[in-house]
Amino acid sequence: MDDSSFISNELDENGFPSCLAEDDGEGGDSCEEVDGVGIVDGSDGKGESFAGSFYRSGTDCSSLLQKDPSLTDTRKSSGTRLVQADLFKMWGLKRAADSKAGASLINGTRGSDDRALQKNPKLRRVGEDIATSGNVAKRNCPFYKRIAGYFLSHFHHDHYGGLRKEWSHGPIYCTPITARLVKSCLAVDSIFICSLELDTEYTIEGIKVTMLEANHCPGAAMIYFRLLDGRCYLHTGDFRACRRMQSHPLLSSQHPSVLYLDTTYCDPKYRFPSREDVLHYTVEIAKSGLKKQPKTLIVVGAYSIGKENVYLAISEALSIQIYVNASRRRILQSYGWDELSKRLSSDGHETPLHVLPISMLSFERLKQYLDGYRQFASVLAFRPTGWTYSEKIGEQLDLIKPKSKGRITIYGVPYSEHSSYLELKEFVQFLQPEKIIPTVNVGNAATRDKMQKCFQDWMKS
Ligand SMILES: [Zn+2]
After folding, report:
1. Do residue 88 and residue 172 come from a single domain?
2. How far is ligand 1, taken at its centre, from the CA of residue 17, in Å?
3. How far apart are CA 394 and CA 389, in angstroms?
4. How many Cβ atoms sit within 10 Å of the Cβ of residue 458?
5. pLDDT per residue as tens digits for the range 105-141
6. What is the tally of structural domains in the chain?
7. What is the CA 440 to chain-centroid distance, rounded?
8. How far is the CA of 59 from the centre of ligand 1 (A)?
9. Centre of ligand 1 from the C-alpha of residue 156, in Å
10. In a domain, 447, yes or no
11. Same domain for 447 and 396?
Protein backbone atom coordinates (compact mmCIF):
# COMPACT_ATOMS: atom_id res chain seq x y z
CA MET A 1 0.00 0.00 0.00
CA ASP A 2 1.23 3.42 -0.84
CA ASP A 3 0.21 6.58 0.88
CA SER A 4 1.84 9.12 -1.32
CA SER A 5 -1.34 10.83 -2.35
CA PHE A 6 -4.26 12.49 -0.72
CA ILE A 7 -7.40 14.15 -1.79
CA SER A 8 -7.15 17.75 -2.82
CA ASN A 9 -9.21 20.30 -0.96
CA GLU A 10 -10.53 21.40 -4.31
CA LEU A 11 -12.69 18.33 -4.62
CA ASP A 12 -14.98 16.60 -2.28
CA GLU A 13 -14.17 13.13 -1.08
CA ASN A 14 -15.94 11.53 -4.01
CA GLY A 15 -14.03 13.41 -6.60
CA PHE A 16 -16.62 16.06 -7.40
CA PRO A 17 -14.91 19.34 -8.15
CA SER A 18 -16.04 21.97 -5.69
CA CYS A 19 -16.74 24.39 -8.53
CA LEU A 20 -19.73 22.28 -9.44
CA ALA A 21 -21.30 22.83 -6.09
CA GLU A 22 -20.84 26.55 -6.34
CA ASP A 23 -22.45 27.08 -9.69
CA ASP A 24 -24.96 24.35 -9.63
CA GLY A 25 -28.08 26.37 -9.49
CA GLU A 26 -29.66 23.77 -7.24
CA GLY A 27 -28.43 24.97 -3.93
CA GLY A 28 -24.96 23.55 -3.50
CA ASP A 29 -25.93 20.37 -5.09
CA SER A 30 -22.80 18.32 -4.72
CA CYS A 31 -23.70 18.21 -1.07
CA GLU A 32 -27.36 17.79 -1.84
CA GLU A 33 -27.64 14.37 -0.34
CA VAL A 34 -25.72 15.21 2.75
CA ASP A 35 -27.10 18.65 3.45
CA GLY A 36 -30.25 17.23 4.86
CA VAL A 37 -28.37 15.16 7.36
CA GLY A 38 -26.13 17.89 8.61
CA ILE A 39 -22.86 16.78 7.09
CA VAL A 40 -20.70 19.61 6.03
CA ASP A 41 -17.13 18.43 5.95
CA GLY A 42 -17.49 15.26 3.91
CA SER A 43 -15.84 13.10 6.52
CA ASP A 44 -17.64 10.16 7.97
CA GLY A 45 -16.75 11.04 11.49
CA LYS A 46 -14.50 8.05 11.86
CA GLY A 47 -11.23 9.46 10.69
CA GLU A 48 -10.32 8.81 7.11
CA SER A 49 -13.12 8.39 4.61
CA PHE A 50 -13.51 5.35 2.44
CA ALA A 51 -12.68 7.48 -0.57
CA GLY A 52 -9.59 8.71 1.21
CA SER A 53 -8.37 5.23 1.88
CA PHE A 54 -9.24 4.21 -1.67
CA TYR A 55 -7.14 6.95 -3.15
CA ARG A 56 -4.36 6.41 -0.67
CA SER A 57 -4.13 2.73 -1.40
CA GLY A 58 -4.84 2.81 -5.08
CA THR A 59 -2.89 5.82 -6.17
CA ASP A 60 -0.91 5.40 -9.27
CA CYS A 61 2.54 6.12 -7.92
CA SER A 62 4.88 5.37 -10.73
CA SER A 63 8.35 4.02 -10.57
CA LEU A 64 9.50 7.51 -11.39
CA LEU A 65 8.88 8.52 -7.82
CA GLN A 66 11.77 8.59 -5.45
CA LYS A 67 12.26 9.27 -1.79
CA ASP A 68 12.68 12.84 -0.71
CA PRO A 69 12.66 13.02 3.09
CA SER A 70 12.64 16.81 3.03
CA LEU A 71 9.08 16.76 1.80
CA THR A 72 7.55 14.72 4.57
CA ASP A 73 7.00 17.51 7.03
CA THR A 74 5.09 19.86 4.83
CA ARG A 75 2.88 17.59 2.82
CA LYS A 76 0.78 14.56 3.41
CA SER A 77 3.09 12.41 1.40
CA SER A 78 5.30 9.47 2.08
CA GLY A 79 8.30 11.57 1.18
CA THR A 80 8.27 10.83 -2.48
CA ARG A 81 8.58 13.36 -5.23
CA LEU A 82 8.53 13.36 -8.92
CA VAL A 83 11.69 12.45 -10.68
CA GLN A 84 12.11 14.94 -13.43
CA ALA A 85 12.19 12.68 -16.37
CA ASP A 86 10.90 13.14 -19.85
CA LEU A 87 9.70 9.94 -21.40
CA PHE A 88 10.33 11.11 -24.91
CA LYS A 89 13.90 11.84 -23.89
CA MET A 90 14.24 8.52 -22.14
CA TRP A 91 13.21 6.89 -25.37
CA GLY A 92 16.09 8.63 -27.12
CA LEU A 93 14.08 11.30 -28.87
CA LYS A 94 15.77 14.60 -29.43
CA ARG A 95 13.87 17.81 -29.75
CA ALA A 96 15.13 21.07 -31.13
CA ALA A 97 16.46 23.35 -28.40
CA ASP A 98 13.85 25.96 -29.15
CA SER A 99 11.04 23.52 -29.52
CA LYS A 100 7.88 24.74 -27.90
CA ALA A 101 4.99 22.79 -26.54
CA GLY A 102 2.94 21.90 -29.53
CA ALA A 103 1.71 19.29 -31.88
CA SER A 104 0.36 18.79 -35.31
CA LEU A 105 -2.62 16.57 -35.27
CA ILE A 106 -3.57 14.57 -38.27
CA ASN A 107 -7.27 15.24 -38.24
CA GLY A 108 -7.05 18.94 -37.72
CA THR A 109 -7.81 19.24 -34.03
CA ARG A 110 -5.94 22.14 -32.55
CA GLY A 111 -2.79 21.00 -30.90
CA SER A 112 -0.36 23.81 -30.48
CA ASP A 113 0.27 26.08 -27.58
CA ASP A 114 3.55 27.82 -27.01
CA ARG A 115 3.11 29.36 -23.61
CA ALA A 116 6.16 28.70 -21.50
CA LEU A 117 5.92 26.03 -18.87
CA GLN A 118 6.69 27.67 -15.61
CA LYS A 119 5.13 25.66 -12.84
CA ASN A 120 4.86 22.10 -11.81
CA PRO A 121 1.63 21.16 -13.55
CA LYS A 122 0.93 18.23 -11.25
CA LEU A 123 -0.92 16.52 -14.00
CA ARG A 124 -0.12 12.98 -14.90
CA ARG A 125 2.20 12.83 -17.84
CA VAL A 126 2.79 9.68 -19.71
CA GLY A 127 5.11 7.60 -17.63
CA GLU A 128 5.01 10.03 -14.78
CA ASP A 129 2.70 10.72 -11.99
CA ILE A 130 2.58 13.42 -9.46
CA ALA A 131 3.41 12.52 -5.93
CA THR A 132 1.18 15.04 -4.27
CA SER A 133 -1.13 17.83 -4.91
CA GLY A 134 -0.77 20.96 -2.88
CA ASN A 135 2.00 23.47 -2.60
CA VAL A 136 4.57 22.06 -4.96
CA ALA A 137 4.02 24.52 -7.74
CA LYS A 138 7.03 26.72 -7.19
CA ARG A 139 9.93 24.44 -8.01
CA ASN A 140 11.98 25.50 -11.00
CA CYS A 141 12.03 22.63 -13.39
CA PRO A 142 14.10 23.21 -16.50
CA PHE A 143 12.91 20.00 -18.02
CA TYR A 144 9.48 21.48 -18.50
CA LYS A 145 10.84 23.47 -21.38
CA ARG A 146 11.15 20.20 -23.19
CA ILE A 147 7.63 19.03 -22.53
CA ALA A 148 5.53 18.48 -25.59
CA GLY A 149 2.28 18.20 -23.75
CA TYR A 150 0.43 16.25 -21.14
CA PHE A 151 -1.51 13.08 -21.54
CA LEU A 152 -4.45 12.59 -19.25
CA SER A 153 -5.60 8.98 -19.36
CA HIS A 154 -8.94 9.61 -17.63
CA PHE A 155 -10.85 11.88 -15.33
CA HIS A 156 -10.21 10.31 -11.94
CA HIS A 157 -8.96 12.68 -9.34
CA ASP A 158 -5.84 10.76 -8.44
CA HIS A 159 -4.75 11.32 -12.03
CA TYR A 160 -5.58 14.96 -12.57
CA GLY A 161 -4.89 16.32 -9.09
CA GLY A 162 -3.67 19.90 -9.37
CA LEU A 163 -5.25 20.58 -12.72
CA ARG A 164 -7.38 23.69 -12.40
CA LYS A 165 -8.94 26.61 -14.13
CA GLU A 166 -5.69 28.58 -14.24
CA TRP A 167 -3.89 25.91 -16.24
CA SER A 168 -1.56 27.46 -18.80
CA HIS A 169 1.27 24.96 -19.03
CA GLY A 170 0.69 23.39 -22.40
CA PRO A 171 -1.67 21.14 -24.28
CA ILE A 172 -3.52 18.37 -22.49
CA TYR A 173 -4.18 15.38 -24.70
CA CYS A 174 -7.13 13.21 -23.75
CA THR A 175 -10.23 11.56 -25.16
CA PRO A 176 -13.31 13.64 -26.07
CA ILE A 177 -15.21 12.60 -22.93
CA THR A 178 -12.29 13.46 -20.67
CA ALA A 179 -11.85 16.71 -22.58
CA ARG A 180 -15.45 17.69 -21.89
CA LEU A 181 -15.04 16.84 -18.20
CA VAL A 182 -11.81 18.83 -17.90
CA LYS A 183 -13.56 21.78 -19.45
CA SER A 184 -16.90 21.58 -17.68
CA CYS A 185 -15.78 20.43 -14.23
CA LEU A 186 -12.49 22.28 -13.91
CA ALA A 187 -13.10 25.14 -16.32
CA VAL A 188 -9.71 24.70 -17.94
CA ASP A 189 -9.34 26.98 -20.95
CA SER A 190 -10.30 25.03 -24.04
CA ILE A 191 -7.27 26.28 -25.96
CA PHE A 192 -5.22 23.88 -23.83
CA ILE A 193 -7.45 20.86 -24.32
CA CYS A 194 -6.63 18.60 -27.23
CA SER A 195 -9.26 15.99 -27.79
CA LEU A 196 -7.99 12.79 -29.40
CA GLU A 197 -10.57 10.36 -30.73
CA LEU A 198 -10.20 6.73 -29.80
CA ASP A 199 -8.55 4.49 -32.37
CA THR A 200 -7.29 7.40 -34.40
CA GLU A 201 -3.59 7.87 -34.99
CA TYR A 202 -2.26 11.37 -34.42
CA THR A 203 1.24 12.71 -34.91
CA ILE A 204 2.56 14.68 -31.96
CA GLU A 205 6.17 15.83 -32.01
CA GLY A 206 6.82 13.28 -34.72
CA ILE A 207 5.45 10.45 -32.61
CA LYS A 208 2.37 8.51 -33.59
CA VAL A 209 -0.10 8.50 -30.72
CA THR A 210 -3.30 6.49 -30.51
CA MET A 211 -5.81 6.43 -27.67
CA LEU A 212 -7.31 3.00 -27.04
CA GLU A 213 -10.36 2.05 -24.98
CA ALA A 214 -9.18 1.18 -21.46
CA ASN A 215 -12.35 -0.51 -20.19
CA HIS A 216 -12.06 1.46 -16.96
CA CYS A 217 -14.47 4.40 -16.74
CA PRO A 218 -16.09 6.63 -19.38
CA GLY A 219 -13.40 8.42 -21.33
CA ALA A 220 -10.55 6.30 -20.00
CA ALA A 221 -7.85 5.47 -22.52
CA MET A 222 -4.71 3.48 -22.87
CA ILE A 223 -2.12 5.46 -24.77
CA TYR A 224 -0.13 3.85 -27.54
CA PHE A 225 3.01 5.51 -28.89
CA ARG A 226 4.81 4.52 -32.05
CA LEU A 227 8.17 6.01 -32.81
CA LEU A 228 9.71 6.69 -36.18
CA ASP A 229 12.14 3.82 -35.72
CA GLY A 230 9.22 1.46 -35.27
CA ARG A 231 9.45 0.94 -31.51
CA CYS A 232 6.19 1.20 -29.65
CA TYR A 233 5.21 1.90 -26.08
CA LEU A 234 1.94 1.28 -24.32
CA HIS A 235 0.76 3.06 -21.20
CA THR A 236 -2.37 1.38 -19.89
CA GLY A 237 -3.42 4.18 -17.54
CA ASP A 238 -6.03 2.63 -15.26
CA PHE A 239 -7.56 -0.24 -17.17
CA ARG A 240 -9.34 -3.53 -16.95
CA ALA A 241 -7.80 -5.94 -19.40
CA CYS A 242 -10.22 -7.99 -21.47
CA ARG A 243 -10.10 -10.39 -24.40
CA ARG A 244 -11.52 -7.78 -26.75
CA MET A 245 -8.26 -5.86 -26.50
CA GLN A 246 -6.39 -8.77 -28.02
CA SER A 247 -8.07 -8.23 -31.35
CA HIS A 248 -7.04 -4.60 -31.61
CA PRO A 249 -4.76 -4.26 -34.64
CA LEU A 250 -2.20 -2.14 -32.80
CA LEU A 251 -1.91 -4.52 -29.88
CA SER A 252 -1.92 -7.68 -31.91
CA SER A 253 0.64 -6.57 -34.46
CA GLN A 254 3.69 -5.70 -32.39
CA HIS A 255 5.33 -6.34 -29.03
CA PRO A 256 5.74 -3.08 -27.11
CA SER A 257 9.24 -2.09 -26.08
CA VAL A 258 7.85 -0.97 -22.75
CA LEU A 259 4.51 -1.62 -21.14
CA TYR A 260 3.51 0.77 -18.37
CA LEU A 261 1.06 -1.38 -16.49
CA ASP A 262 -1.76 -0.64 -14.05
CA THR A 263 -0.80 -3.08 -11.31
CA THR A 264 -3.53 -2.18 -8.82
CA TYR A 265 -4.43 -5.86 -8.32
CA CYS A 266 -1.20 -7.53 -9.36
CA ASP A 267 -1.30 -10.22 -6.70
CA PRO A 268 -2.58 -13.80 -7.16
CA LYS A 269 -4.97 -13.31 -4.27
CA TYR A 270 -7.03 -10.91 -6.35
CA ARG A 271 -9.45 -13.15 -8.14
CA PHE A 272 -12.71 -11.41 -8.71
CA PRO A 273 -15.56 -12.21 -11.05
CA SER A 274 -16.23 -10.67 -14.42
CA ARG A 275 -18.15 -7.44 -14.39
CA GLU A 276 -21.01 -9.15 -16.21
CA ASP A 277 -21.35 -11.70 -13.40
CA VAL A 278 -21.29 -8.97 -10.76
CA LEU A 279 -23.92 -6.97 -12.62
CA HIS A 280 -26.15 -10.02 -12.90
CA TYR A 281 -25.73 -10.77 -9.21
CA THR A 282 -26.44 -7.17 -8.20
CA VAL A 283 -29.58 -7.01 -10.32
CA GLU A 284 -30.86 -10.26 -8.81
CA ILE A 285 -30.29 -9.02 -5.27
CA ALA A 286 -32.06 -5.75 -6.10
CA LYS A 287 -35.01 -7.64 -7.61
CA SER A 288 -35.42 -9.94 -4.65
CA GLY A 289 -35.04 -7.01 -2.25
CA LEU A 290 -37.91 -5.18 -3.93
CA LYS A 291 -39.97 -8.34 -4.01
CA LYS A 292 -39.59 -8.83 -0.27
CA GLN A 293 -40.19 -5.18 0.54
CA PRO A 294 -41.70 -3.13 -2.30
CA LYS A 295 -40.94 0.06 -0.40
CA THR A 296 -37.20 -0.51 -0.64
CA LEU A 297 -34.89 2.30 -1.68
CA ILE A 298 -32.00 0.92 -3.73
CA VAL A 299 -28.79 2.88 -3.38
CA VAL A 300 -25.65 2.50 -5.47
CA GLY A 301 -22.50 4.13 -4.16
CA ALA A 302 -20.19 5.66 -6.74
CA TYR A 303 -17.42 8.15 -7.17
CA SER A 304 -17.99 10.99 -9.58
CA ILE A 305 -16.94 8.92 -12.59
CA GLY A 306 -17.31 5.16 -12.93
CA LYS A 307 -19.69 2.35 -11.87
CA GLU A 308 -22.34 3.67 -14.23
CA ASN A 309 -23.08 0.19 -15.50
CA VAL A 310 -24.10 -0.96 -12.04
CA TYR A 311 -26.96 1.47 -11.68
CA LEU A 312 -27.79 1.35 -15.37
CA ALA A 313 -28.17 -2.44 -15.18
CA ILE A 314 -30.54 -2.15 -12.20
CA SER A 315 -32.45 0.62 -13.91
CA GLU A 316 -32.93 -1.40 -17.08
CA ALA A 317 -33.78 -4.66 -15.34
CA LEU A 318 -36.37 -3.09 -13.05
CA SER A 319 -37.59 -0.43 -15.50
CA ILE A 320 -36.97 2.39 -13.05
CA GLN A 321 -35.30 5.76 -13.40
CA ILE A 322 -32.03 6.71 -11.73
CA TYR A 323 -31.98 9.63 -9.35
CA VAL A 324 -28.68 11.50 -9.25
CA ASN A 325 -27.94 14.96 -7.97
CA ALA A 326 -27.30 17.82 -10.36
CA SER A 327 -23.51 17.61 -10.16
CA ARG A 328 -23.49 13.99 -11.12
CA ARG A 329 -26.20 14.50 -13.69
CA ARG A 330 -24.13 17.12 -15.45
CA ILE A 331 -21.15 14.77 -15.52
CA LEU A 332 -23.20 11.80 -16.75
CA GLN A 333 -24.88 13.83 -19.44
CA SER A 334 -21.54 14.97 -20.77
CA TYR A 335 -20.70 11.39 -21.76
CA GLY A 336 -23.08 11.43 -24.70
CA TRP A 337 -24.36 8.06 -23.46
CA ASP A 338 -28.02 8.12 -24.50
CA GLU A 339 -29.14 4.93 -22.75
CA LEU A 340 -27.90 6.37 -19.50
CA SER A 341 -28.98 9.99 -20.03
CA LYS A 342 -32.58 9.10 -20.78
CA ARG A 343 -32.87 7.19 -17.51
CA LEU A 344 -31.77 10.01 -15.25
CA SER A 345 -34.23 11.60 -12.89
CA SER A 346 -33.90 14.86 -10.99
CA ASP A 347 -36.48 13.95 -8.34
CA GLY A 348 -35.51 11.45 -5.68
CA HIS A 349 -39.15 10.95 -4.71
CA GLU A 350 -39.99 9.64 -8.16
CA THR A 351 -37.79 6.57 -8.26
CA PRO A 352 -36.52 3.94 -5.80
CA LEU A 353 -33.02 3.92 -7.35
CA HIS A 354 -30.61 6.55 -6.09
CA VAL A 355 -26.90 7.04 -6.74
CA LEU A 356 -24.98 8.49 -3.81
CA PRO A 357 -21.35 9.31 -3.11
CA ILE A 358 -19.71 6.15 -1.91
CA SER A 359 -18.87 7.81 1.38
CA MET A 360 -22.60 7.94 2.13
CA LEU A 361 -22.71 4.17 2.44
CA SER A 362 -22.65 3.90 6.19
CA PHE A 363 -25.56 2.83 8.37
CA GLU A 364 -25.81 6.21 10.05
CA ARG A 365 -25.79 8.25 6.87
CA LEU A 366 -28.16 6.00 5.01
CA LYS A 367 -30.58 6.02 7.93
CA GLN A 368 -30.57 9.80 7.92
CA TYR A 369 -30.96 9.82 4.16
CA LEU A 370 -33.90 7.43 4.38
CA ASP A 371 -35.58 9.75 6.86
CA GLY A 372 -35.79 12.31 4.06
CA TYR A 373 -37.88 9.95 1.91
CA ARG A 374 -40.87 8.82 3.91
CA GLN A 375 -42.29 6.69 1.11
CA PHE A 376 -39.46 4.20 1.52
CA ALA A 377 -39.28 1.75 4.39
CA SER A 378 -35.78 0.38 4.01
CA VAL A 379 -32.51 0.80 2.12
CA LEU A 380 -30.70 -1.81 0.09
CA ALA A 381 -27.29 -0.36 -0.77
CA PHE A 382 -24.51 -1.59 -3.03
CA ARG A 383 -20.90 -0.60 -2.67
CA PRO A 384 -19.33 -1.62 -5.97
CA THR A 385 -15.55 -1.73 -5.86
CA GLY A 386 -12.70 -4.14 -6.24
CA TRP A 387 -11.67 -3.19 -2.74
CA THR A 388 -14.60 -5.15 -1.36
CA TYR A 389 -12.82 -8.22 -2.63
CA SER A 390 -12.47 -10.99 -0.10
CA GLU A 391 -10.12 -13.92 -0.51
CA LYS A 392 -12.74 -16.29 0.88
CA ILE A 393 -15.34 -15.20 -1.62
CA GLY A 394 -13.08 -14.98 -4.64
CA GLU A 395 -15.32 -15.50 -7.63
CA GLN A 396 -18.19 -17.04 -5.68
CA LEU A 397 -20.64 -14.22 -5.45
CA ASP A 398 -23.18 -16.32 -3.56
CA LEU A 399 -20.87 -16.27 -0.57
CA ILE A 400 -21.19 -12.51 -0.18
CA LYS A 401 -22.74 -11.64 3.15
CA PRO A 402 -24.42 -8.26 3.38
CA LYS A 403 -24.23 -6.13 6.49
CA SER A 404 -27.51 -5.14 8.03
CA LYS A 405 -28.56 -2.81 10.78
CA GLY A 406 -32.16 -1.86 11.35
CA ARG A 407 -33.69 -0.84 8.04
CA ILE A 408 -30.36 -0.61 6.23
CA THR A 409 -28.62 -3.39 4.32
CA ILE A 410 -25.30 -2.87 2.57
CA TYR A 411 -23.75 -5.23 0.04
CA GLY A 412 -20.12 -4.91 -0.97
CA VAL A 413 -19.94 -6.18 -4.54
CA PRO A 414 -16.59 -6.81 -6.25
CA TYR A 415 -17.27 -4.72 -9.32
CA SER A 416 -13.80 -3.73 -10.36
CA GLU A 417 -12.69 -1.28 -13.00
CA HIS A 418 -9.12 -2.55 -12.73
CA SER A 419 -7.78 -5.87 -14.00
CA SER A 420 -7.78 -8.93 -11.79
CA TYR A 421 -4.50 -10.79 -11.43
CA LEU A 422 -5.40 -13.35 -14.06
CA GLU A 423 -6.57 -10.68 -16.49
CA LEU A 424 -3.25 -8.89 -16.08
CA LYS A 425 -1.37 -12.11 -16.65
CA GLU A 426 -3.29 -12.92 -19.82
CA PHE A 427 -2.85 -9.40 -21.14
CA VAL A 428 0.90 -9.42 -20.55
CA GLN A 429 1.32 -12.89 -22.01
CA PHE A 430 -0.56 -11.76 -25.07
CA LEU A 431 1.41 -8.55 -25.52
CA GLN A 432 4.84 -10.01 -24.76
CA PRO A 433 6.43 -6.64 -24.01
CA GLU A 434 10.19 -6.36 -23.78
CA LYS A 435 9.91 -4.55 -20.48
CA ILE A 436 7.17 -3.90 -17.94
CA ILE A 437 7.02 -0.92 -15.65
CA PRO A 438 4.37 -1.24 -12.96
CA THR A 439 2.63 2.00 -12.14
CA VAL A 440 0.67 1.16 -8.98
CA ASN A 441 1.74 -0.12 -5.56
CA VAL A 442 5.37 0.53 -6.31
CA GLY A 443 6.15 2.46 -3.15
CA ASN A 444 7.27 -0.66 -1.35
CA ALA A 445 10.39 -2.58 -2.37
CA ALA A 446 8.96 -5.96 -1.39
CA THR A 447 5.83 -5.37 -3.47
CA ARG A 448 7.92 -4.22 -6.42
CA ASP A 449 10.04 -7.35 -6.20
CA LYS A 450 6.98 -9.53 -5.97
CA MET A 451 5.50 -7.94 -9.07
CA GLN A 452 8.73 -8.30 -11.02
CA LYS A 453 8.77 -11.97 -10.07
CA CYS A 454 5.22 -12.28 -11.41
CA PHE A 455 6.24 -10.64 -14.66
CA GLN A 456 9.18 -12.98 -15.07
CA ASP A 457 7.00 -16.02 -14.44
CA TRP A 458 4.39 -14.81 -16.90
CA MET A 459 6.93 -14.25 -19.61
CA LYS A 460 8.45 -17.71 -19.10
CA SER A 461 5.24 -19.64 -19.23
ZN1 LIG B 1 -9.09 5.50 -12.49
Report:
1. yes
2. 16
3. 7
4. 16
5. 332 233 333 332 333 333 434 433 322 223 333 444 3
6. 2
7. 13
8. 9
9. 5
10. yes
11. no
